[in-house]
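My current task is to audit a protein record that another person submitted. Alongside the sequence sits a line of tokens, each denoting a local backbone shape. Where you disagree with what is written, explain briefly why. This is what I was given:
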Amino acid sequence: MPGIYGSDERHWQSLWRKSQPGATRIRPASWDEPELNDWLAALGRAIESKAEPQLIVAHSLGCLLVAFWALRFPARKIRGAFLAAPPDPENRNFPPAASSFQHPPTSPLPFPALVVASTNDPYCEIDAANRLARRWGAGFVNVGAVGHINSDSGLDDWPEGMRLLEAFRAGLGSFPRKLT
């Protein structure tokens, strides 16, 4: 689940999707002019297209989308969420085009989640990301100074992130497959 403007071909998320059989990317009407209800519908279509509960891998604005989804459709077919570089809607760099994503829910997510953040993310200070993780009842990992954890960060296929995802996925084995 990319953020605003989608994830280009150099983005770790695009590279991971190509290497993961069965991975699906949401398809909203616009990546450049995100509208919350449209993105929620796109996420709903992606989740409902799968028989089993899904592990969501979200970047940036996609992280806020997961929180909104959890509020409206608690635990519905989501096994867990890996949330990389959530933006802070109160940050001066938050894109005006994403105004419908302001005021994301701050209640605990009804499924396991891990927030991964950077110390020099221009869209979210590390303390704000840590606060989001605590409010969402999510684990938190500080990956150091890697910007917005996107193509501009030069992470390529982001092996450290894949290791974090695999560890998170392994930990989900202790959670029930069907969430209620």
Summary: The longest strand covers residues 78-84. Confidence is low (pLDDT under 50) at residues 175-180.
